Amino acid sequence: MSTFSTYDIAVPVLTRGLQTFDHILHKAEAHAKANGIDADSVYPSARLVVDQNPLVFQVQNATKTVRNYVIHLTGEDIAPFVDNEKTIADLHTRIKAGLALLKKVTPDVANGRAESQSATFNPSGSHPVTLKVKDAVLLQALPNFLFHLTTGYSILRAQGVPVGKADFISNFIGVPGFE
Fold first, then answer.
1. Which of 152, 49, 89 lies closest to 168, judged by CA?
2. Domains, the chain, ranges and CATH?
3. Cα 27 to Cα 179: distance, rounded to the nearest angstrom
C-alpha cells in the first residue's frame, strides 16, 4: 500500500500552484501586449464582482498561505510579506518569493512535524479550531490556496485573457513547458 506524507501532499501542490499562477500571469501579459491593454493598470485591480477582492489580493493570499504553511511545516519564523504589489512584475516577484520559501521545506522536517499542533483558525469569526499540521495542510491550506489560485485564474479569464483548463491543470500533472 502506498502512503502520502505531509510533505508529499503540501509542497508539490503549492509549488506547482504558484508556478501555474506565474504562468497565467505571463499569458495575461502576452494578451495585454497583443491587444493594446495596459496590463498593470487593468489586471492587478480586476475583480469578478464588486464585493470580491482583486487579482493582486488573490496572489498575495495564495503566497501568504504558502508562507503560513512553510512556518507550520518547518517551525521557522518567517517575516510576513509586505503586500505592496501594484504591477504584474510585482506579482511575479511575489510568486518567486513564495517558491523560494517552499524550497526551504525538506521532507524530513515537514513529516516530522505532521502530528504536532498547528495554529488555531477562526474562519469567518466562527468557533476557533486547532488542527495538527497534517490536517491543517490538507483541510485548510490546500483548499484556501486553490481558492485564491482559481479566483485569480477566473479574474483573468473574465478580463478576456485566453486561459483554459490546460493552463490551470497542466503543471499540476507535469506537462513539460509549464514550470
1. 152
2. 6-30+44-169 (1.20.120.450)
3. 14
Cβ–Cβ under 8 Å, residues 69 and 10: yes
Phi and psi angles of residue 54, each rounded to the nearest 5 degrees, phi first? -80, 175
Within 10 A of 170 (CB to CB), how many other CB atoms are there?
17
Retrieve residue 23's grid coordinates: 504562468
Q: Which of 9, 25, 15 is nearest to 89 (CA)?
A: 25
Q: Which amino acid is it at 99?
A: L
Distance CA(23)–CA(39), nearest Å, equals 15
Residue 64 and residue 124 in contact, taking contact as beta carbons nearer than 8 Å: no
The per-residue pLDDT for range 20-65, each reduced to its tens digit, is: 999 999 999 999 999 999 999 999 999 999 999 999 999 999 999 9
- Contact (CB, 8 A) for 15 and 114: no
Strands (E), the chain: 117-121, 129-132
| Residue with grid cell 505532521, as numbered in its chain | 114
Say what the pTM is. 0.93
